[in-house]
TrEMBL record:
CDD domains: KDPG_aldolase
Keyword Chloroplast appears in the UniProt entry: no
Provenance organism: Bradyrhizobium canariense
EC number assigned by the record: 4.1.2.14
Name this protein carries in UniProt: 2-dehydro-3-deoxy-phosphogluconate aldolase
Length: 216
C-alpha cells in the first residue's frame, strides 16, 4: 500500500531530522532563544508540545522569528488541538496516543501527522486510517527495541519515531533499527538548561548529537 503524499512528506522530514527535540516551554521568553540554540547546533526540526499555557504563543513566536526552524506541534490530544496546529502554520503534528475521533480528523486534515501507538492493536488502527509512520510512545517503557522488532514482523511497512526514555546513551541503537526514521527526546534541551538559559550548552549538545547520529 502506497503512503499518502502527506505521510511521504513526513517521512522525508523525519529522516532528514534524525533527532526531534521535544520542547516543553514554560516561559514565553525562552521560546526564541531555545529554538535559535537548537538550530545553531544543526537541529532544525522541533516539536513544541501543547503541555503548558504558553505553548501556542511559543510556537507562534518560533515560527515568526526563527526562519530556519521546522516547527511541529506535539501532545495533540483531540481535533481542536489539531485545528490549532493547522492554524499556527505548523509543519507537522504528533500525538502521544490516538482516539478514533482524532485519527479520523487527522486523516481528513492536510497536516502531516504521526499518531502515537504502543501496541499492535493501536498500530492497526493507525494503519487503517492511512498512517504508516507513527510515534512509538513511551518507547522504553513499552518494551524498548525488542518490542519494536516484534512489531516489524506483522507490520513490515510501518515506520516509527520512538520517543520516551531515549537519550544520548541509546539514541544510536534506536536509529540503527531499519523501521526507525527518527527519534524524539528532550535530552538536547533539559528543563534545567532551559530554566538557566544555558543556550550555549544546548547548542553544544545539539552539535554533538548531529555529529554522532547523522548518517555519514
Amino acid at each position: 500500500m502506497t503512503s499518502p503524499p502527506k505521510q511521504q512528506k513526513l517521512a522525508v522530514l523525519f529522516k532528514s531530522a534524525c533527532v526531534i527535540p521535544v520542547l516543553t516551554i514554560d516561559r514565553l521568553d525562552d521560546a526564541i532563544p531555545l529554538a535559535r540554540a537548537l538550530v545553531a547546533g544543526g537541529v532544525r526540526t522541533l516539536e513544541v508540545t501543547l503541555r503548558t499555557p504558553v505553548a501556542v504563543e511559543a510556537a507562534k513566536a518560533i515560527i515568526a522569528n526563527v526562519s530556519d526552524a521546522v516547527v511541529g506541534i506535539g501532545t495533540i490530544l483531540n481535533a481542536n488541538d489539531l485545528s490549532s496546529a493547522e492554524a499556527l502554520g505548523a509543519h507537522f503534528g504528533i500525538s502521544p496516543g490516538a482516539t478514533p475521533e482524532l485519527l479520523k480528523a487527522a486523516a481528513a486534515s492536510p497536516l502531516p501527522f504521526a499518531p502515537g501507538i504502543a501496541t499492535a492493536s493501536e498500530l492497526m488502527q493507525a494503519l487503517a486510517h492511512g498512517f504508516d509512520l507513527v510515534k512509538f510512545f513511551p518507547a522504553e517503557q513499552s518494551g524498548g527495541i525488542k518490542a519494536l522488532r516484534a512489531l516489524a514482523g506483522p507490520f513490515p511497512n510501518a515506520r516509527f519515531c520512538p520517543t520516551g526514555g531515549i537519550g544520548e546513551a541509546n539514541a544510536a541503537s534506536w536509529l540503527a533499527e531499519p523501521n526507525v526514521v527518527a527519534v524524539g527526546g528532550s535530552w538536547l534541551c533539559s528543563a534545567a538548561d532551559i530554566r538557566s538559559g544555558n543556550w550555549a550548552g544546548i547548542t553544544a549538545m545539539s552539535e554533538r548529537a548531529m555529529k554522532s547520529l547523522k548518517p555519514a
